[in-house]
Specification:
heterodimer; A: alpha+beta; 4-stranded antiparallel sheet; 15 strands; 64% helix; B: alpha/beta; 6-stranded mixed sheet; 38% helix; 15% strand
Chain lengths: 698, 430
Amino acid sequence: MSGFGTTLSLLLYAVPPAALVALWLLWLAQPRVAAFLRKPNRLAIVAGVAAGAVILTGLPVVVTSFNLARERSAILDRLANASLRERDAATVELLEQGSVTVGDKVFRSAQLRQLGEQLFDKSTGKLAYAEQLAELFMAPSMPEWAPPTIFNTFGVVAVLLVGAAIAAGAVLLGLAPLLAAVLIAAVGGAAVALLAGKLGMLVAIVGMIVLITGYGVLSRLFLRALSGANPTSAVANIVLRESTRQWYTGAFILVLLVVLPLVPLAIDAGPLRYRIQSFLSWSLGVSFGLAGLLTLVLSCATVALEIRDRQIWQTLTKPIDRLRYIVGKWLGVVIVNAVLLVVSGISILLFVEYMRTQPAQNFMDETAVRDEVLVARLGAKPVYEEPTREEVRATVDGMIAADPTLRSELDQKIRDEATVRRALSEQVRRDAMAMQRQIPQGAAKSFEFTGLQRARELESNVTLSFLIHIGASDPHTQHPVIFKFKDGTWIDRQYVPAQRHREMIPWQYVESDGTLTIEIGNFGVRNDEFYPGVGTLNWDPDGIEVLFKVGGFEANFVRAIMLEWIKLAFLAMLGICCATVLNFPVALLFTATVYFIGLLSPFLAAAIDNYWVDPNDPLLVQIFQGVVRSIAVAAHFMLSGYGEVSGEALLVEGRLVSWRSVAKTFVIIGVMWTGVTAGIGWAIFRRKELAIYSGQGG
Amino acid sequence: MRAATNQPSKQDLVVEAVGLSKVFHDFWHRDTAVAVDGIDFNIRRHEIFGLLGPNGSGKSTTIKMILGLLRRSKGVLRVFGREPDDVAVKRRIGFLPEESYLYRFLNPVETLDYYGKLFGLARRIRRRRSEELLNMVGLDAASHRTVGEFSKGMARRLGLAQALINDPEFLILDEPTSGLDPVGTRQVKDLLLDLGRRGKTILLSSHLLSEVEDVCDRMVILYGGRVRAAGTTEALLEDTNRTVIQTQRLKQETITRIEQVLQETEGVSIERVQAPRQKLEELFMGIVEQARKEQAATSGASHGGPTAEFLMRGDEASDRAEGGDLIETLASARDEAPARAVEVERADERRKESGVREDVLRELAQPSARGADAKVPAVPAAPAKPAATPSAPPKQGAGSGRPPAPEVDRSVIDDLLGGGPSEKDGGAKR
């Protein structure tokens, strides 16, 4: 690039960001500039000029990049089928003239004519360096007034320009000058990353710009909506301002808005389906986790600190009753959560859609993304036959008759027959069901999966998900299993015990009534001969499942966000009500305990199953174990509903978050739990004396 | 304890407390402190009521019970005839606590907007009142700085503004001048007097006795949670055993002659003769006024403007009136300014008092008691309170509210003291 071009590019691309940064510095240094910019019309003019400058300088880049990309694509299309063996027109032109013709334009390179057949792969005869050749042909077309890197990423530049325009619009909406300064700095940083060729960091910075701007715009809109002459909305308005202006909550928001765009940089390379699932898991984890922590802190702080610092005196000596005060605080926290979840949710969704367009490793990877990841699926378990009451009774009778000791104890009334029979009946049922989930060595069993009509309607492949045990499950060995379908076709697979595996099954195997029949064989095939498995194959009640598509990813994503929002709304009310009677640290501790017990309730359930009072331990230890178990059981009973439905886990697995589950969560957690908590909190708060005896003060 | 005169009707009472008590308990419900012990008092409409007492006497506790922040342990407490925690009552009250407990992350505009919304004020009214109040308290230049950056005095001013945002009927001020400089203190006192003339009822709690004395109509003095004294300011402070006569500068012989007359007629002698001193407040105000005229620079709170129009005129009038209607409304509002009953009563008392003093002076001026060359300088009517400072401008539409003292028969006095009429007008001075 010529010296003049370098100078010109520096002028074109350095001046607008430099001007914006200078304006920011002026604003910092001169209160008069800040006062000047506070007038809406002036601010509009300055923002418009700044946005116009960025757009005017960036627009030529976008247009030029687009044209260059089109030409490059045309050259690659022309060279795609070039073959030394077939001697097509493009190959002949390349060899003889060192050029390629696209439409009415001829791209020529003298060096290529000299290289001749060296450009082709000797074994296949195909053109080996198509991309590099395209770059070589394009080189003379590159403009001299900007670095070439910029033109290779015109899409990102376009996004940058849109971001700048949005930033200008956000400033017009009256965002704080500091926020505008952050955006300006981010735009500058993005420009630097672009020039340095760090595309990943560029995308991340652009993501930060979008998130911060989106959060600011949405917050400002809600502030406008809450500006009416209503005490409840006035209190909510204050909470919204507090969330960004106080360090103890603003930090969470800032971390979320900055860290979230960096998540894609942490995703390892690999199959596309795992990259998408990793991104979903990480990004939703970060978003929901930080939103949860923010809710804990904000809901406790906004009331407890007001009581401590006595701002509540100034509020409750005005015509607002205490119930409206609680509702107003709650509404404010709920709105903060809504803004955060909407902004982060939109950014996650957009990035997932972007990842969807990325090339998959192979056909299976592509199919998995389409049918297993970016989808909403329901699961169908095998139909097992429940033993009838008569069968159970007969079995229990036989067990009692075969056990003389037990018979004698029952006859002598040492043990209660009804209790014994009940216990034996449960055991018989469990054993009967477990028997159905076992396949002896070399044997096979047939299972039916029903309710799969939707899969057939959508012509969507289904996924057989299985986690199998065999004897002493050694995770380092593999064992054979065969799946046979109704039409006689079968597939053999190797599985690792205690690990979940997936097998895609064509939708055509689902019958018109929605039934899928699979025969599972505990044997394998070697050298065209069958050989049995090494032990009895068995699985847990949820060990085998068929997953089938019932809806799209986007709607599922929205429902998952709604689920999380409802759960956070309960958490907010809990924090606020605790803070009305407890000080900040205690209220935060209590609310956080409830939150984490709720989150970990599935693990708690498993832990409770394995935690018993040991009669061999000393009495005091037994008492302690009993108390711990009782507390755990009570906590799990009360809070299991909070953790059972996790939108994040369902989304990552491509499972359906149904409207029914959203409605159920709304009614139980959103209305009942939140309402009861609010009622208890209000009943206590309305009697609370807010002014303490000061002694010295009067 | 002196009982208040003139039992008012229930409708005239803003606050009524009978046997009011507050006992604080610990977690085990044991009594830890008796903050208020069976006090009786009432606050009438349109009066400025003082609540005095040392630290720990129960002043703030009483105020908090009135506001519903504390529940009473015993007794009766009514505010506007209702329970103190009735939300409807709070619509009519403005409260300035002993410290300004404001949100540090809001600026003054946002602060007043928030409190205005709690009162259900429309945006247009909130905006207008906020502007007027910030101008009044001298914070218009700092309206976009957050409260966290404010000095104590600036926060206090903002606290006063928020107490007035709803144009309250009943204003409760706990140490209103705490943290304010003398200029601000003077403004607050003037504001209270303005508001009083407009018919507001004000409960003022303060340690600064001079500010209570200057503005209050009635007061109650607490100690240990009990009322030790109650009554009008005049009745509580009047020293009926002394007479003060203030004149122009006198010669020593004249003073000696006056003492002789007093000894002969009353059998008393002069206890003290001194030149009155200018008050420090007057000196301070004069210096500040001069600096302002010279436009000296300052980065603190500005002097502040006049009392907000909506407080003086009534917001409904200013909302409705346009053009000529506005003038008519102003005129009728001025005419309708409620006369505070206590002020009329006080004016009557002052007239009576000056009449009594005139009789004394006439008696002193009998020919047997004076010399032939005695010149009697003009004697102004004795004011009950110190004179107002010359810097306080007359308030528009408010009027003085106090009737002028009657003219004295100066010829008698002139003869007594042997002086001619003074160069200055001998009319009543304030």
